[in-house]
Amino acid sequence: MSIQPNSLPPIQDMPPIGGYKKFNLARYFPARGPKGWQLWAGSTLMIMYGFYQVGQGNIEKNQQKMQERKVRYALAPILQAEADREYLERELVILKKEADVMKHVPGWTVGKNPYQSGKFMPRMVNPLDRGIK
Predict the structure, then answer these.
(1) Is the pLDDT of residue 33 over 90?
(2) By C-alpha distance, which of 130, 131, 124, 133 is closest to 93?
(3) What is the Cα–Cα distance from 123 to 113, expressed in whole angstroms?
(4) Residue 98, Cβ neighbours under 10 Å: how many?
(5) Cα(123)–Cα(60) distance, rounded to whole angstroms?
(6) Which H or E run includes 67?
């Protein structure tokens, strides 16, 4: 059951006459770091510096690649000449071996392509086959 309501007015806590005493909020809640615009400005500057560094790194990397490419272009004829010389040495060894194996076959021409295509196709010479030399 419920309690019967009173005919008296309700009792309510009220502030003292003249109000409560003022207190300094700054004393209890000091500034907690930089302002929002300062955070945005700092972040923007850091990001811009990062992009600048990335760009400088890309420029440096491209210059390094260009130097390596120039060195490769300068060395290519020398390396090609060496590869051609090794190819000819292996080709001569293969032709000697072919002449030795096919010496009893009448009408065999050493070094002639058995396929009559009319196109020049270099022979497959395995550079890792050390048993040829």
Answers:
(1) no
(2) 133
(3) 9
(4) 14
(5) 44
(6) helix 36-101
